[in-house]
What we know:
79% of the residues lie in helices and 0% in strands. By secondary structure, the chain is an all-alpha fold. The chain has one domain. It is globular. It starts with a helix and ends with a helix.
Amino acid sequence: MHSHLAQAIPTRPSARRTHPLYWCFLLLLCSAYLQGGLTKALDFTAALAEMRHFGLAPAAPLALLTIAGELGASLLILSGAWRWAGAAWLALFTFAANFVANRFWELAGPTRTMAANGFFEHLGLVGAFLIVAWIDLHARGER
């Protein structure tokens, strides 16, 4: 199993296509952003309410930017076209949104613990997207 997994990660210049296993890993990584973008697009009123809940204005342009960013960057990652750019965008988006949505330092008690867990889980996603960008840029640089 280990050798099959190692072959799935594109580290060679000849790795033009995305190995199916690596693509599945990328799909898992993008799943929350695909779900979030589609949910916001299908219920724009709820997307506006979410922006307002977090005090973001103007709500409509920011909701549209969020939808386009979540779906567009995910599609870049999954298609392999400008994968590094899609991964970098989702890393930046996640990092910034984390400070808006998971302000654990302002909370107390159990809600603080849950928000802190969410904050650091999202930092893990940021790291994963940066690894994807690094791998893609490295593979492109060797071509």
